[in-house]
Amino acid sequence: MKKGIVSAVLATGLLMAGTANAAEYKVDKAGAHAFINFKIKHLGYSWLTGRFNDFDGKFSYDKNKPNESKIDIVINTASIDSNHAERDKHLRGKDFLNVKKFPQATFESTKYEQVNDKEAKLTGLLELNGVKRTITFPVEKIGEGQDPWGGYRVGFSGETSLKLKDFGIDYNLGPASTHVTLELHIEGIRL
């Protein structure tokens, strides 16, 4: 009987060792090494660009099992910054982000598909302006390794185009301004 228990314990240990968890990372918000930017055409004549200054998140990643990766991001929508106070006030209002009613936007991944060593497709649930939609977009692994302070980091970049009406934003900005491009540049520090 003791032999059977010892065998079971050893087998469980080997099984657990073979399915080690992916490393957990905290988005480097404190060091300002992560950015969520946006751009939208202004009347078709130029680009209006901006960013969200306040967001946080975490992700898991193992280069040996990349398809098991997951990411969760929370954005404080009132932190929108287009470098123009009056415009930002309008963007925070009911015509756009309605930040009083929806103070946060969230993204929770549901699937990560590795294409090659650097490229993947990320799918997840984006909640913006009280609307939840599944989106998929390409991401690029920028790199990973030790940092000068004894930590370990990995970084990714991705970009997607969102149709404003899909998220309940139907303010008429003209026919050239129906979509906004969202750019994510995420660097994480391993916990």
Please summarize what this structure is.
By secondary structure, the chain is mostly beta strands. The protein has one domain: Lipid/polyisoprenoid-binding, YceI-like (Lipocalin, Beta Barrel), CATH 2.40.128.110.
Tell me what you see in this structure:
It is a single chain. This protein starts with a helix and ends with a strand. It has one domain: Lipid/polyisoprenoid-binding, YceI-like (Lipocalin). The longest helix has 17 residues. The N terminus is likely disordered. About 20% of the residues are buried. It has two helices and eleven strands, in the order αββββββαβββββ. With about 190 residues, it is mostly beta strands. It has an eight-stranded antiparallel barrel with strand order 1-4-5-7-8-9-10-11. InterPro entries: Lipid/polyisoprenoid-bd_YceI (IPR007372), TTHA0802/YceI-like_sf (IPR036761). Pfam families: YceI (PF04264). It comes from Pseudoalteromonas luteoviolacea S4054. Keywords: Signal. This is Lipid/polyisoprenoid-binding YceI-like domain-containing protein.
Classify the fold: give the CATH topology.
Lipocalin
Q: CATH class, please? A: Mainly Beta
Number of strands: 11
What is the correct CATH architecture? Beta Barrel
Pfam families: YceI
InterPro entries: Lipid/polyisoprenoid-bd_YceI (IPR007372), TTHA0802/YceI-like_sf (IPR036761)
Protein name: Lipid/polyisoprenoid-binding YceI-like domain-containing protein
Keywords: Signal
List descriptors.
191 residues; globular; Lipocalin; single chain; Lipid/polyisoprenoid-binding YceI-like domain-containing protein; mainly beta; signal; TTHA0802/YceI-like_sf; 2 helices
